Amino acid sequence: MRRAVVITGAAGGIGQALCERARADGYLAIGIDLRPSPVSDISYELDLRDSANVIRLSHQISEEFELKAVIHNAAAQPIGGAGQTPIAEWTDILRTNVIAVDALLSATIHNLASNEGSVVAISSVHARATTGGLTAYAATKAALEGWVRSAALDLGPKIRVNAVSPGAIDTAKLREGFQRWEGASVEDRMAALRSRTALERIGSPSDVAAAVSFLISEEATFISGTVITVDGGATARLGSE
Which portions of this protein are annotated as coiled-coil regions (predicted)? Predict the structure, then answer.
């Protein structure tokens, strides 16, 4: 049986790249998103805030496929500073950004363990170094990395758990985030990001997919509980200099 990779947020820019890379690596790409994924082999439309349905679908997938990996890429990124995010929205963001991966795992854990599988969470550089106006996003990404560390201890040696932390990746979500800088054009913001990155370019979704491909491969069998940063060297820069 062809082994499968489950990818959340499969309809977005990074999600599509993850699906394409999984297929290129010989896996069946199973996409989960609010809307159909155009490049996954199988696409499920699901709201990840609904934990009961996440678990139900995960049980179904686990019964039908041999799983190589669960890749949690979906994320909500609201614009709002400290004290500006309604409590109900905080709950939704936590369910999407953090709780969903635990729900997915709860129903697939035995399948992954029997296939020497792994979990990869797509975090963000905002988990460790951020800007104003992204409080809920930064906080939940930091929580996600905490989950990765703890889950790696809980699930080893059968299942490896890691994260990839992207910096500026050229996606629609990146451009939407520019809204917190009023009056700045997209071109100006992209130029500013390039100037602050050691490699002087914005990342592509395929850069993230390549890191994930490595982490779920046989070449990474002694890697667990870690975060690989894919940011072109941006976070190497000392902000006060």
Answer: none
